[in-house]
Amino acid sequence: MSIAVLAAGVAISAQDKYTVQVPNGLAFSEFRGYEDWPVIAISENEGLIAVIVGNPAMIGAYKEGVPGNGKPFPDGAKMAKIHWTPKKQEAYPGQPSVPGMQHDVDFMVKDSKRFADSGGWGWGAFDYDAASDMFKPSTAASKPPQENDAKCGFACHTVVQNRDYVFTEYGKR
């Protein structure tokens, strides 16, 4: 679904981000509401800052000690990692960077049946284009380069197979 806006007599269609999906079916719509999920952690990587958020199943598993207790995350656990290009805080010079323009959003979902051949996880990476206010599946041309199917994170995440393929630490609160 898209929303049409009439500007100077020309219809402009805005993307409904929930219609975008990567090959093999992983869709943005599977993460509806991620914008309001609780924070798992923050990170910085390759010049971008990020917040990693989780749905209730993911947060509950972390609170029970997963993956440090040797148990896997449950099916239905979901994470979103939202990346921004950092900018300096203008109101208080000299302070740390804050989120600037959104760069992309990455998703992970645990579904051991659907993604049995990728450690039970499905991945999706979506680049954001601020000029058009639209998302599209990341590709090998993206920065950083990404495969663009539901297994796009598997090769990278195999180094943390003993953590159920999850890099992110849940900080003590």
TrEMBL record:
**Pfam families in the record:** Cytochrome_P460 (PF16694)
State the superkingdom.
Bacteria
Q: Where is the Cytochrome P460 domain?
A: 32-168
The record's listing under Gene3D superfamilies reads:
Cytochrome P460
Q: Under what name is this protein listed?
A: Cytochrome P460 domain-containing protein
The organism named in the record is: Bradyrhizobium japonicum
Q: What lineage is this protein's organism placed in?
A: Bacteria, Pseudomonadati, Pseudomonadota, Alphaproteobacteria, Hyphomicrobiales
